[in-house]
Amino acid sequence: MKEWYNKINEAQSVDALEEIRIAVFGKKGILAAEFAKMKTAPNEQKAQIAKDLNNHKTALMNEFTAKKIALQTQELQEAMKAEAIDVSMFSTKSSAGALHPVMETMDRIVEYFSSMNFAVKTGQIVEDDFHNFEALNLPKYHPARDMQDTFYFKDEMLLRTHTSPVQIRTMLESKPPIRMIAPGAVFRRDYDLTHTPMFHQIEGLLVDEEGKVSFANLKFILEDFLKYMFGDVAVRFRPSFFPFTEPSAEVDISCVFCKGEGCRVCSHTGWLEVLGCGIVDQNVFKAVEYKNVSGYAFGLGVERFAMLIHQIGDLRSLFEGDIKLLEQFQ
Ligand code: PHE
To answer: From the CB of 162, is ligand 1 less than 6 Å away?
Structure first.
């Protein structure tokens, strides 16, 4: 019997202890066998043997219960240790970033015009009066300058109000023919639902021999481009004014929200204005000393395109860096 006390005490796990329980207390266990042997013992010894065996049975059972509780407690503590969470530990989970919706839209626009053989030019963000206004047929004190008020530095330097100065820089540094686009940041003194002081434009310019570039060419490429960007929309050209193009037009697409029925976004007109364009004014060619050429130009706001594509209500939210908003466009 003694060895069974030792076995119980030396058991290493609840499972091992269970095996011992079966070997001791089970139907075919040692206690059952000892009680069975009693039958063949002399009658006068039977009472004593039974008493001894019952004492052992109780003692072994106490031993077993105590050991079981000890082992269970130990196993529980080990499990808790293994599964413990360190709440002070930094999260090591990382997530991949994605392009900002404005940059993604810009990439798509650049992709279209690259496929049409337009070269990509960048120009510079801090411009001088000559490139930003004067050479674009916007003389000093011309009232059309009021539409594009911006941030000035000393010596007639300013943050460019549009990407059109890149037209001038490109023409001054190269000879016709020219096919270029200029994506980049521009600055104006505006701030409301649809205007921010910094935004992005894409300029387009095509110059070739006199008589080779017509309004029909301009119309074709812009219609094709707008269908590429917005799908099956109607496109219309409205006469307008820009000092650097003559004739000039503003281009509308049928409202992408209400399909032309009329809604809040399109001010119940069914149309959304998306870009400005025209045939390059001869005064612009004079300023860069180009002779016997014709050309067309256009300019568009990238944020406006991103807003229409993603149906964003407030243009300013694009610049707040709110991850919850931006994650929706991944
Ligand atoms: N530069 C003009 C603007 O910012 C857009 C434009 C570009 C219009 C080229 C005509 C031709 O409003």
So the answer is: yes
